[in-house]
Structure prediction request, 118 residues.
Amino acid sequence: MQPHALPPASTSAANPPLTADQRAALKKLHEAATEFEGVFLQMVMQSMRATVPQLSIFGHRSAAEQTWQGMLDDEYAQGMAKGGGLGLAAQLEQQLRARVLGDASAEAKASVNGRIAP
Prediction:
């Protein structure tokens, strides 16, 4: 599945071309929505993992193993989100697009700081 790309700037009368601020704001919206979906997927994986017995072939899992597994789950979740995931990011983008374009100059300056810990 391919990641959701920003729609191309249209030149029809119904859809005037996007300004630089609007393109930047939509890019930030895409980044934020993808990060949100990644956090959501990581929380789902964490909840699923909690239902599985915490025993390995050597007995109870060590703190290091649990930490490593959590980091691996986070990478899986981020990879799934970047690949389209559940489509949550695309839905968020669709719902917030008009609002972001309405205040594009402020939204273009917004900070998307990367991963958010659940």
